[in-house]
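User: Here's a chain of 255 residues. Predict its fold as tokens.
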Amino acid sequence: MASLTEAFINNPIELWANNTEDDLQLVIRAVYKQVLGNAHVMESERLESAESMLRNGNISLRNFVRMVGQSELYQSLFFNSSSAYRFIELNCKHFLGRAPLNQEEISEHVQIYNEQGYEAEINSYIDSEEYNRVFGENIVPFPRNITSQKGVKNVVFNRTISLLGGLATSDNSNKAQLTNSIGANLSPQIKVKSSGIEKAHTNTGKRFKISVRKSGTTPLFKQSNITYTVGYSQLSPQIQNIQKKGGQILSIVEV
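Assistant: Prediction complete.
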């Protein structure tokens, strides 16, 4: 039996003009499953107005995805109780079907949210050239980067696999999974078996320099630019602390 990811890649789910009601329900369920991270959606939580607009042809499938992403349900699941890093890595997964590419992409989306707000952050994925090229108006977003792709580094493969999890998993954890991997530009830990014992390759001996630009008027930042040098184990907490204080991360390099 093919995995969910293989099924999406081999046969992406698309909304056609002559779809039956059964076809439409398949599309709607696929959108909820992808955009809401495999969360169980109760009947009372379904977006009846948006579904009706899609059924009547008043909105495209892309705009139905947008309405799910901007709904109170999506906010309650992935925004209200999550860190900025977790929110953005899940947005990349749900709307673009991949993990974040690098620290620069994370920083760009933090800036969009801080300066333009929640709706603009959601729109930045759905209105992107990438979304238009891959999914267009009528294809349900699906997991990508599980195989090598031209112009995309192989490390994104490992990160995407880390975010996908298994078929029965959901995105209900509010803890970012890729903070260290993206911040240090490293592949996520990959477990391997040696002599019957599971071990993991780690980067715990490395140290990293974080360059930060002042953002806002928080008292933490006395200068326009600040540099921190931390070990691998302190990398994730330091990044989260910088973002909580309003700082913009310019770069993270190994020292």
